Amino acid sequence: MTLAPQHAATRPAGGTGAATAPGPARRARRWGAYGLLMLGLVAALAVLGVLNIAQGTSGMTPGEVISALLGRGDEQTRALVLTTRVPRLLAGAALGAALGLSGAALQTLTRNPLASPDTLAVNAGAFFALTLAAVLGIGIGGITGSLLAFAGGLAAAGATMLLTRGGSDPVRLVLGGSVLAMAIGSLTSMLILLNTESTEGLYSWGSGSLAQISSAPLLQASPLLAVGAVGLFALSRRLDVLALGEDTARSLGVPVARVRVLTVCCAVALAAGAVSVVGPLGFVGLAAPAVVRLLGVKVQALRRSAALMAAAALAGAVVSLGADVALRSVLGALGALDVPTGVATSLLGAAVMIVIAFLLGDRRGAGHGRASTLSSAAGLRARLAWWRHPYTIVAALALLMGALVAGLLLGDATVLLGDVANWLRGAASVRLEIVLSTRWPRVAVAAVAGASLALSGALVQAVTRNPLADPGLLGVSAGAGTGAIVSLLVLPGVGFSGIIAGALIGGGIAAALTLGLGLTGGRDDTTRLVLVGLGVGTAALALTTMIVAGTDPYNQAKALTWLAGSTYGATPVHALVGAAVLVAAFALAQHLARSLDLAQLDETTPVVLGVRMGGLRWTILGVSVVLAASATAIVGVIAFVGLVAPHAARMLTGPRHRFLLLLTVLLGATLVVVADVLGRSLIAPGQLPAGTTTAVLGAPYFLYLLARTGRLRRG
């Protein structure tokens, strides 16, 4: 797969002027192959269109559907076909084409095969803007919704491009965009949870649903879609020149900055228009250009931006309708009613991301190895040379104790230290007894979960020698969440032990897939590991969405609260189980601290000094999965703790794991306890899930880390 279209014509070293241009036969072969590709896509689209319009819950025969389309048959059948099936078909084809065109343009502009409305956080930003408008009582129908989605998507895309410095590095773009999308998604989930009445139905729609009751929404968004499509094709010649390099393009009179801005705006307009009609239809913009390139690997005409974008638009329509047809074929028309089509497109996008990870090969992506991050840590540690390990540990312990005390005192009802003392002596009032008896398990669970996730991240980073590795980015937390959701909703009678077992199984499967595919042959391949992890995590989240969307409103609200990472409903049993796992894992990690110090150096040195790297790697990874699964089981999915805490600890103590692991545990516990306190206090008596708060707090640090490692590598 090529990273970007190549447009320079190959000219013979000599010969006549006629020989300097492709001959008629060569030109015919080039465009003949392209014509066959387009014909095949059109044929596939026609077949899928027939299958799509024939599917439904009414039990109509294909003959009745055809009669209704021709204006025959009874009025009820015609109304049903024209108000539900035809709008669904048109929305799937038109908006899939819009997303495919948008993705192809972004990939051409950035010369990055992973660029898409999803990886640039465009869809997340557009959906957040629509959700916020719904909460504020602003109508999101018609052109208003399209313009709101455009504003939100453009802001998110601009932030991603700025943070990833143009998006040319595949890993940096995916990491930056995914993290920004995760933070925006946390804010969106918070709005939905706190405003269930005004946002009713947005969860399923937010995963991309083609269900339509008329063609009006598509017609209202069509001006924005038309502007975006026409604009991109008008810019295609300049994109061809820009692909030769910015210096060359400037020398040929192309206004590079203006072309970049206009291309991003047009691509965002297409994605925003799609979001305003069907919600974020996940990864169509990533999969469609990839499908075109894989099918037309030897089609030279695809080196032209216009040809690539036209083919990607057709492929986007094929992907969208194909996912919808496949979903309703597998689940049945009735079974697919509650499952968004975006679930199927996200599963396809996850597979495409894993395939691209293998095609990209062993590239030195963002933050590769330990050198870049540890060099920054060494610089900060030099400025903080007056710190010593014992004092650092004592300060972190004091910080944690302060957070624990604040957790007991603050919330929907504020209590005093004297009240806590009375409660400990058994002399508290009934009201105070109720408040503190429900509050201390939440504080304890938050501390245990934060410490477990932080320790898990530090261990994974040590044995993979990848400073960007953590349970969230490697798909382990998402897999554990899927397993726990299955136990929570599908098998509700299994209890807490069943949730832990489900989380362990889900996290173990996700870790096996990520590490098995990402560390093929034992190579230290940062690009592959991170992309495979994101792909596995995307697939797990799609499965979780399918399960949650198919349940009743009560269980859906319960699942959304749990998925956001909430300590609500925590019990002493949860805290004790999590603490037991944490203590055992920490003791084992301390026992292996010297081996971990050697393992982060390279593959050869530990073996020479007697460390069995194979056994160490799989032991540590197994412990990391158990830690992440136990934390997920007791509080739900919480992001960034396994990344932020180890990096902060490393900057204060250096890479020696005997001190690093202890400080990591203390900082991770403090981070989640503080997030939980803020969530219970900021909008009391309402509550924000701890996972939402940690995402909002952790995302800026991660993006700063991503930008800093880029500067260090360039320096």
TrEMBL record:
Single GO MF descriptor: transmembrane transporter activity
GO BP annotations listed: siderophore-iron import into cell
Top-level lineage group: Bacteria
A Gene Ontology term for the protein's cellular component: plasma membrane
Record InterPro entries: ABC_BtuC-like, ABC_transptr_permease_BtuC
Stated family: Belongs to the binding-protein-dependent transport system permease family. FecCD subfamily.
Principal location listed in the UniProt entry: membrane
Pfam families referenced in this protein's UniProt entry, alphabetically: FecCD
Species per Swiss-Prot/TrEMBL record: Brachybacterium phenoliresistens
Transmembrane segments: 31-54, 89-109, 121-140, 171-194, 281-299, 306-327, 339-360, 391-410, 440-460, 472-490, 496-517, 529-549, 620-645, 657-678, 690-707
UniProt KW Nucleus keyword: no
Sequence segments annotated as region (Disordered): 1-24
UniProt cross-references to Gene3D superfamilies, sorted A to Z: ABC transporter involved in vitamin B12 uptake, BtuC
Localisation per UniProt entry: Cell membrane
Keyword Transmembrane: yes
Protein known as: Monooxygenase
UniProt membrane topology term: Multi-pass membrane protein
Amino acid composition bias (Low complexity), ranges on this chain: 8-24
Keywords linked to the UniProt accession: Cell membrane, Membrane, Monooxygenase, Oxidoreductase, Transmembrane, Transmembrane helix, Transport
